[in-house]
Structures are given as structure tokens and as C-alpha cells.
Amino acid sequence: MSEIALDLREITSGYKASVVLRKLSMTVGRGEAVALLGKNGMGKTTLLKTIMGYLPKQTGAIRMNGLDITKLPPHRIARAGIAYAPQEHALFQDLTIRDNLRLGLADASVFDERFAEIEPVFPVFKSRLKQYAGTLSGGEQKMLLVARALMMRPSIILLDEITEGLQPSVIDRLAQALLWERTRHGTTLMLIEQNVPFALAVADRYAVLKQGEIIDHGNAKDEGAAAAVLGYLRV
Questions:
Q1: What is the pLDDT along the chain (235 residues), one digit of tens a residue?
Q2: Quick check: helix, strand or coil at residue 52?
Q3: Hey, what CATH topology would domain 4-234 get?
Q4: What are phi and psi of 178, to 5 degrees?
Q5: In whole angstroms, what is the distance from residue 101 CA to residue 96 CA?
Q6: How big is the CA angle at 184 (ends 104 and 226), to the nearest 5 degrees?
Q7: Residues 55/13, Cβ–Cβ less than 8 Å
Q8: How many CB atoms lie within 10 A of CB 135?
Q9: Most CB atoms closer than 10 Å: which of 8, 70, 131, 164?
Q10: 3-state DSSP helix/strand/coil percent for the chain, to nearest 5?
């Protein structure tokens, strides 16, 4: 594996007295894409929120590119180079597309440069920067979440079910955007998905979570990967 971008060591986490993750350990190489798969309620979203510092760790440690982020608050983790596109809508509905995109930048002066770079991937936003985010369709809002993450030019992006409820054409656009980002900037991806074909197409590796533990993992491009994952989802 390449140099490690994300190193999780025996992470136990959850919600108050409810333990969800149980001494989970995994690594993600720099520039690698890993898909987290499994039924609902198995700890996938909890894992992303724990990485981002929204949930406290009961045990374990997290290192990002060698930096210990275990006890850092979410805003410092974001500044360290992790962008998070959550499952629930995290846009400011009463702000414009431009303002939502700008919120991810530490320095607003780089907006034009960053937007010019991602605009070919998201041409739908080029002439609509003054439109309010709340007036966008569901698919456009998902694309805006991803666009905001790319604007940050992070070293790691965490994606939580970004294809949920989207049309195939929008899903294809998102897949192209993530491929573009990895090719251009070598960005590391960790994505949660119920859409198995999309997840395996984007990812290099997959890991299956069940009751807060990784029960299987493999190469996303292996011939039997889809069948193996779908088998776990049906049980």
C-alpha cells in the first residue's frame, strides 16, 4: 500500500451509552478510494462522524497523514484537510450557490480560481451562482455538496450515501467528478453507499461493516466483489 492517509486504531464509539463501533481498525492509503458497505444501522455513518470529531472516541486513535486528530474538534479536522459530505442535507438553504461553495474555503479570495477548476465537472452551476440553494432539486443539492468538498481541495473526502434518491444520469456525473478529483489531485476517498455498482466502480477496495465491526474486505475490481457484497446486504 502507498503511504497511509487515514489510520484508525481500535476505535470504539457511539451515542452516549450506546456503543456502535467496536475496536474497529483500518487504514486507507494516500490517494486510495475505499467503499464502506453494509446494511443500515451497522455503524457506517457513525464511523465517518467519529473521524470528523462529531462523536467522541471511547477508545482508540485516528491519524491523518501522520497527524494525530483523535482529540481535535471538527473545525480543526476540516482545516487539517478532511472534507465531509454528509447524508443529511448540510447546505444553507437561504444562501446562494456561490455562498455555499465559498463557506468551504479558508480564504475567499481563491474562490474564482477554485470554481474555474471544478466548473467543467459541474457546468450546471456556472450561470446559477446567485440562485438560492433551497431552490435546487435533490440531485443538484447533492452535486453542490460534492462541489463544495472539492472546492476545499482536501487531502481526504468522506462521502455518506451521496447517490441516494438520484437519477442515473446524476449518479454518472458524480462518479465522473470523483474520478476527475482523484486523477487531478490524488485525493483519498472514503465513501458509504447502498448503491453497490457505483461504490465498486469508484472504489479500489471495499469493507463490509456489521454491528460496528469489519467482517469482510476485498478488491473492488475483483470479479466476485459485487456478489460477495450483495450477499451480505441480503442476509
A1: 459 999 999 999 999 889 999 999 999 999 999 999 999 889 999 999 999 999 989 999 999 999 999 999 999 999 999 999 987 767 899 999 999 999 888 889 999 999 999 998 889 999 999 999 999 988 889 889 999 999 999 999 999 999 988 889 889 988 988 998 999 899 999 999 989 999 999 999 999 999 999 999 999 999 999 999 999 888 6
A2: coil
A3: Rossmann fold (3.40.50)
A4: -70, -40
A5: 9
A6: 95
A7: yes
A8: 12
A9: 8
A10: 35, 30, 35
- Please, is 108 exposed, middle or buried when counting C-beta atoms within 10 Å of its C-beta (0-12, 13-18, 19+)? exposed
Helical H runs in the chain?
Answer: 44-51, 74-80, 97-102, 111-118, 138-151, 168-185, 196-202, 225-234
Q: What is the CA radius of gyration of the chain?
A: 17
Closest CA to 47 of 87, 10, 14, 18: 14
Grid coordinates belonging to 234: 441480503
Q: For the segment 61-72, what is each residue's pLDDT rounded down to a tens digit?
A: 999 999 999 999
For residue 43, the one-letter residue type is G
Residue recorded with cell 478532511: 82
Confidence at residue 1, expressed as pLDDT on a 0 to 100 scale: 44
Which pLDDT value is given to residue 89?
Answer: 67
What backbone phi and psi angles, to 5 degrees, belong to 125? -95, -10
Q: For 7, list phi and psi in degrees, rounded to 5.
A: -125, 110
* In contact, 24 and 14? CB cutoff 8 Å: no
Question: How many CB atoms are located within 10 Å of the residue 2 CB?
Answer: 11
